[in-house]
């Protein structure tokens, strides 16, 4: 087991480069299954454990997948197998995103039921509702969801009860090869949806309206492998923006797209952070004193739930009372307990947390409960007194590339160690000095 060990007190400065977006690359790789001719070449792909997992799922479905130097090449021209087993879905829920492509291309998909995870129960009823509207028969049993259609899927009108990101993506992928027109209403508007639509259109699909509340898809007979470059990761960008702000730092987050980050920029500016739109990205300058604000997570363009735990770290350092309300996931406050272990004054009331800051945080051993919590706890460690040890880094590796190296490059005192060598050399030297 590995740990991140961070010693608080360093101001961050310099430049950090953002990778391609995890939440854009996973659906795009799932969509490569739709290309019955030619190879798909996906560029700007981050080497995350989730990317390795989706590549494994695709190989299991009888495709050839290569992943080198930030480029994934998929040849899906052979006949596809249609089953994604539990061993993959357990590792990564986004494996269910192959369902729409498989159903669209082969008329059949069998995917292990994803189950819940640390942030809530996360059902996929809206995905299935879309497939059923297009004529698929859906059966759930023995731990699997099976969807099948006689012949081709038929275009349909589908209204989502909630603008689910995954349901929007899965139904879009199913609809591009369906017969006729599909109209999806109350859909997700996240930038990752737009990236997927752009990829599907390059492949020969006809998808209009991505980024708005209604998407219209004209089904086509065939799709082809094409080249596509993934958009920058707005959540990774936001994570480094918060790290800069909390340390009173001055950091250029290269690759951050301001339009993708408007709700975060607005809240950070309200807190007194200076954010400058530069040619290469966003420059973030932390103030001496942060002001408290209230936050409510919402589907895009609202405040992203994937930035909630990082903002919790920042609000703990702010002067006054702040409230965060989580409306997207039913149980995404597990990290609050870990912040408490660092001395935070946090109260959980239903779907809200109330924080009284500024909290002088103390270094402690804390466990990451999901990937964003791993980042948020490390960020809190940047301003805590003494050493913070963050465990359960398998979560971090799902969504961040070289996280501790990037922070170290900005001046943080941070290392990642194996459990056996728990005490890093620098800390041992401190202990010798103190003795
Ligand atoms: C790989 C990926 O892109 N993951 C992102 C995606 O997850 P994901 O696509 O799973 O998130 P959704 O937008 O689907 O889920 C949002 C909410 O809707 C509920 N729901 C969803 C589908 C459904 O059929 N029924 C249902 O009730 C979920 O339980 C959750 O409470 O969007 C989330 C919300 O922005 C982000 O936090 C995740 O990082
Ligand atoms: C919750 C997240 O991802 P996933 O949907 O892949 O679990 C996330 O990226 O913060």
Individual helix count? 15
Q: What ligands can be seen in this structure?
A: uridine-diphosphate-N-acetylglucosamine, phosphoenolpyruvate
Structural class: alpha/beta
Radius of gyration: 22 Å
Report the count of strand segments: 27
Distance between the termini: 29 Å
Uncertain residue segments: none
Most strands sheet: 5 strands, mixed
Mean of all residue-level pLDDT scores = 95
Strand content: 25-35%
Fraction of residues in helix: 25-40%
Query: How would you describe the shape?
Result: elongated
Short description:
By secondary structure, the chain is of the alpha/beta class.
How would you sum up this structure, described in words?
It comes from Rossellomorea vietnamensis. Keywords: Transferase. Its EC number is 2.5.1.7. Strand 21 (295-296), helix 10 and strand 22 (318-325) form a beta-alpha-beta unit. The two termini are 29 Å apart. Strands 20, 21, 22, 23 and 24 form a 5-stranded mixed sheet that branches. This protein has a 4-stranded mixed sheet with strand order 25-26-1-27, with helices on one face. A 4-stranded mixed sheet has the order 2-17-19-18. 51% of the residues are buried. The mean pLDDT is 95. It has 15 helices and 27 strands. It is α/β, with parallel strands linked by helices. Phosphoenolpyruvate binds at residues 23, 93-94, 119, 306, 371-372, 399.
